[in-house]
Amino acid sequence: MTSKKNTVLILIGIIVIAAFFRLYRIADYLNFLGDEGRDVMVARHILQGDLTFLGPRSSAGDFYLGPIYYYLMAPFLFLSNYHPVGPAIMVALFSIATVYLVFRIGSEFFGKNAGLIAALLYSISPLVIIHSRSSWNPNAMPFFSIAALYSAYKGIERKNLY
User: Fold this and answer.
1) Engineered SS bond to 115: which of 12, 77, 91, 103, CB 3.0-4.6 Å?
2) 40 within 8 A of 77, measured Cβ to Cβ
3) Of the candidates 93, 91, 102, 99, which has an alpha carbon nearest to the alpha carbon of residue 138?
4) Strand, helix or coil at 64?
5) Cα–Cα distance between 5 and 102 in angstroms, integer?
């Protein structure tokens, strides 16, 4: 059993490790293929005032996803002077935040030690690291899906308390 201070220090260390693996030389390792190029062009158009209400076309059928990813990536594209590394940094930051969510949920359901182990494993997972270095729209999904499920759980839990 770890004390609260030790837990916080270990968690900070895990998050620093996650940040290092995701951000170190990100410009050298990011993937930039057709989908990423299309997303950057759409975000650039948004920054130029051409707003869109359609997201990327789904590969699983004839429908479109929502445009929220384009609007999330636009400020990062602007801050990076329209370099593709900006949106990749955004995805990496979401991945780092996911490490904390994994810790939080693991701690709440299984205890602090389990939360720390889960966060550590997520932070050093090679597949997660590779996917967190490119701005492809599904790569931010772990953060949003975990946050949505956890929020729904907390909402149900609070409703039962009253």
Assistant:
1) 103
2) yes
3) 91
4) strand
5) 19
Which H or E run contains 14? helix 4-23
Question: Using the 8-state DSSP alphabet, how is residue 134 labeled?
Answer: S
Task: List the structure tokens of 5.
Answer: 């201070």
Residue at token pair 């949920």: 105
The dihedral sign for the CA sequence 103, 109, 112, 114: negative
101 vs 18: CA distance, rounded Å: 13
Beta-carbon contacts of 150 under 8 Å, excluding residues fewer than 6 positions away, are: 101, 104, 105
**Tens of pLDDT, residues 142-157:** 999 999 999 999 988 8
10 Å CB burial of residue 53 (0-12, 13-18, 19+) is exposed
Q: Which helix (H) or strand (E) holds 147?
A: helix 141-161
Instruction: Kindly report, residue by residue over 96-135, the tens digit of the pLDDT.
Output: 999 999 999 999 999 999 999 999 999 999 999 999 998 8
- Kindly state the tokens that stand for 78: 């602007």
Whether this prediction's pTM lies above 0.85 is answered by: yes
Instruction: Note whether 58 and 76 are within 8 A (CB).
Output: no
